[in-house]
Amino acid sequence: MNTSAPYSFLGFKLLKIDMHREQDGPVEFFSLKVMQSNFDEKTNIFSLDVTFSFKFVNNSPSHLFFRGAYKINDIKWMDSMNELTRINTFFQMLFPYMRLMVEQVTDDIRGWLVIPILDLSQVNLLVGITFKPNLKN
Predict the structure, then answer these.
(1) Closest CA to 55 of 75, 31, 27
(2) What is the DSSP string of 116-127?
(3) How far apart are CA 9 and CA 45, in angstroms?
(4) What is the pLDDT of residue 3?
(5) Residues forming a β-bridge with 48
(6) Considering only CA atoms, which of 134, 29, 133, 34 is closest in space to residue 91?
(7) CA angle, corner 11, sides to 96 and 69, nearest 5?
(8) For the chain, what is the radius of gyration of the CA atoms?
(9) Residue predicted with more confidence, 1 or 49
(10) What mean pLDDT is predicted for residues 16-27?
């Protein structure tokens, strides 16, 4: 009987930051999208590339590019999932780290972008999802 976990989280990288916040203004939107996933059969490492985009009012859109890496210990387990289930499973492990990095990168005297805890397990992250605040006019 195999008692080890089906995968191990190896970590994440913040690959690139393209941030624009020259003017004051509240957040207009933020969005998440999985750009690609890859499985290296030689090393049994699965990777997930995610773009976190956001925009503050009166500013250009900003983007943070992340990569998460996972060592697959049970190939049959991974192969038993369809692509969206696989992506959502691995994204759930990466998302808390992304939230933390977004808060740290946007933290300045004007306040920071706080991302709520979200259950995105039923979202097609290959298409992406966008959140917009309800602002009073």
Answers:
(1) 27
(2) PP---TTS-TTT
(3) 10
(4) 59
(5) 37, 68
(6) 34
(7) 105
(8) 17
(9) 49
(10) 89
- Per the listing, tokens 């006019």 go with 137
Least confident residue range of 28-37, 40-49, 70-79, 100-109: 100-109
Residue in the block written with tokens 């195999």:
2
Average predicted confidence (pLDDT) for the chain: 92
Asked if 113 and 63 count as a contact pair (C-beta separation under 8 A), the reply is: no
Place of tokens 């059969």: 41
d(CA 52, CA 31): 6
CA 85/CA 87 separation, integer angstroms: 6
Tokens of 92: 């759930």
Supply φ then ψ for residue 104, to 5 degrees: -70, -40
Q: What's the distance, Cα to Cα, between the start and end of the chain in Å?
A: 61
How many Å apart are CA 68 and CA 18, to the nearest integer?
A: 19
